[in-house]
Write a structure and sequence with these properties.
heterodimer, A: mainly alpha, about 5% strand, B: mainly alpha, about 45% helix
Amino acid sequence: MESRFIALKLFLQALGIRPKIKSFADRKIIQKAVYLGQALTGVDLGYRFSWYLSGPYQTALANDYYRLAEYLELGDTSSKNLKLSNQVIEKLSNIKKLMTPPNSLPETITQSEWLELLASYHYIRFVSKYSEKEASEFIKLKKGHLFPYLEQVKSELSNIKAI
Amino acid sequence: MDGFNDKRLADPVHGTIGLSRLEVDIIDTQVFQRLRNIKQLGLTDYVYPSANYSRFSHSIGACHIAGKVIESLINRNFLNKKDFSYKNIQRYRLAALLHDIGHYPFSHPMELAIKEFYQPDIKSDLTKKPYLTHENIGKEIVQYHPEIREILNNYGYSRKPISRLFTRERPDILLNIM
């Protein structure tokens, strides 16, 4: 397995994300987790994200997690004795709790929806450079079903000093 | 399309392509003319000799197609004509025209090689790599290249809205035509 797939696997592992790709929701989780992992910690796997319908997305990342899934299905164990540096693991661990919806939110919001909202808000604030007001209006218009959870997203990002 | 026929080119794929004065001025810049020497498919023509068209002709074709798509969407009432003034349409056409201006020599193979060179070493601290995608290089060119800056300023177009379209930095209803 090439080193970039090992790096991706270990990166996801450090965030508590399994490299599952069977459903659209699974793949969305990986996309948003990698975006947030890079954006919030400075740990760089080299993926450069653009805006698509469900938020920040990277085509090369999609290619890579499909390839990673193939290797894992074939039983590749080349990552077995490898690990990320302690510094990187620590950085990623600091945001690991963001990867799942807070307990205070209703169970109706799934992990993929939570990450979509978190990543989308962060992206349009800090990459698209929308103001807070513009970003809130955008989320209300385009992701209305997730808008009720926006304040929680802002709170979580504020807690880790991302905003 | 009205307003985009100051100059006409014959294209083997699209037939006659109409261009605005602004688009012609952009095409005449050294930085755009460079695209004549960048093959669309990198080294593929060494295997398939006919695959030798350039990023130059591709970019002009993309500009034309962007205009055609918008025209078609307006005519079919999927877009409100009032929201798409001449200037707005020109902006999308410019984004399509300039979307590949940042391409490396040999197109994607070179870009992949550079990305591979900077691929993460898992034993390192995985800090941000200086690798730039061709879209981001294009963004820098649109923003800072003196020829492009001067032309866009002279015609009254801001640079950022154009580069944001082809880097997909901002949500936009027509992002997918880029």
